[in-house]
Amino acid sequence: MSTIKIKQVKSAIKRPARQKATIQALGFRKLNQTIEKEVTPQILGMIAKVKHLIEVVE
Fold it and tell me: Which of 15, 25, 34, 46 allows an S-S link to 7, with CB 3.0 to 4.6 Å?
């Protein structure tokens, strides 16, 4: 499977609990952290829910 790199660029403070939980489930612990995940429909759905807090790194 292919992988995707994503970076958290905005804080989850003052965001709804579901968005905070999604950021945590993706594996982010700190702001500006970059992580690499396999591309699955579940991961793509999570990225779509918090797309305003993260960016996809090429």
Answer: 34
CB 40 within 8 A of CB 1: yes
Burial label for 13, CB within 10 Å (0-12, 13-18, 19+), is exposed
Give the model's pLDDT for residue 6.
98
Is the full-model pTM beyond 0.85?
yes
What is the CATH number for 42? Answer: 3.30.1390.20
Query: What are the C-alpha distances in Å from 50 to residues 1, 13, 29, 38?
Result: 23, 13, 15, 17
Per the structure, how many domains does the chain have? 1
Q: Which helix (H) or strand (E) holds 18?
A: helix 17-26
